[in-house]
Amino acid sequence: MRFIIVTGMSGAGKSTALKILEDTGYYCVDNLPVELVPKLGELLLLPGSSISRIALGLDIRSGHSFEKLQKSLEQLDEMKISYEILFLEASDETLIKRYKETRRSHPLAGNGRVDQGITEERKRLAFLKRKADYLIDTSRLLTRELREEMHKIFIENKEYKNLYITILSFGFKYGLPSDADLVFDVRFLPNPYYIDDLRAKSGNDPEVRDYVMDNEKAVIFLDKLTDMVRFLIPNYVQEGKTQLVIAVGCTGGKHRSVTLANALYQVLAEEERDYGIKIEHRDIEKDAVTKAK
C-alpha cells in the first residue's frame, strides 16, 4: 500500500497534484476532516481492502481542526501505517499573482490582503513542511512539468532531491531576471547580430549555434560553467534549496545567451540526475516585436 498526503500552500497546485495522482491510478480523497485521518488509516488496514494506492488532500481550509493534524499523524505512526507527505510550495509573488488572476480570496485573509493570509498560512504549515518527504516548488512549473516530476516520484519511484533547475536565457537590455540565483554574462563572445545571414535567426538555429560555439572562448566557458554547476547542485540540495534559476545573458537575449543556455541544458539533461530541469528563453522574440513597432 502507498499512502500519500498531499498538502501545501493554497494556490500552489494541490488540486492539480491530486488530479495527476488520480490519473495514475490513485484513489483520491480531498479535504477530509483531519480527525478522520486515523479512521481512513484503519480502513486501509482491513483485510481484503482493494485500495493499494491512496492520496489524501489536506489544506488550511480545514480551519482550526488543521491544528490537530500533528496528533492525527502521530496516531498513524502509532498504528504503524506508512505514509508520505508531498508538500507543494510557491513564492509569495507567484501565489499573489494566481489569486489575482482567479479573483479568489485567500482562506486566511478574511477581509484583509492576500499577502497577510499567505504569511499566516506559512506559519501554520511550517511543521508540515519540515515533515514533508517531497517538496515541490511550483512557482515556475507548468502543469506538464509538475506531472513529469510527480511521475518520477510516484510511478518510477526515483529518488527525489526536491530541487528544480531552470536554465534561462535573457537580454541585458531588457533587464536582469528578478528571480535569477546565478547570472552569467556571455557578451564577451562575438555577436552573430552583426552577421547579415544570422541576424534574423536565433540560438535555436544550427547556423547561429555553430557560429557561437566555433570559438574557443565559448567552449572553455561552457566547460567551466558546467563544472561549477555540477559542484553547486549537491550543495544546494544539502542546503534544502528547491528552485535554482541559472540565467545566461547577452545583449538582446536571442543569439549567444540562447546558444549557451541550450548547451548547458543539454549537458545536464543527459546526465543521470535526481533533480528536475527545464530551459526557458525569456527574450528570444523581443527584438522582432520591438522592430515591428
Give the strand content.
15-25%
CATH architecture label name of the largest domain:
3-Layer(aba) Sandwich
- The number of distinct structural domains comes to 2
CATH topology of the largest domain: Rossmann fold
C-alpha Rg, in Å? 23 Å
Based on Cα principal axes, name the global outline.
elongated
Largest sheet descriptor: 5 strands, parallel
Q: With helices defined by DSSP (H or I, 4 residues minimum), what is the helix count? A: 10
Number of strands: 9
Q: Please give the share of residues in helix.
A: 40-55%
- Residue windows where pLDDT falls under 50 for at least 5 positions: none
- End-to-end distance: 59 Å
Find the CATH superfamily of the largest domain. Answer: P-loop containing nucleotide triphosphate hydrolases
User: Which structural class should the secondary elements be placed in?
Assistant: alpha/beta
Query: Roughly what is the average pLDDT, rounded to an integer?
Result: 88
Domain RapZ-like N-terminal: 1-157
Protein name: Nucleotide-binding protein
Binding site for GTP: 59-62
Binding site for ATP: 8-15
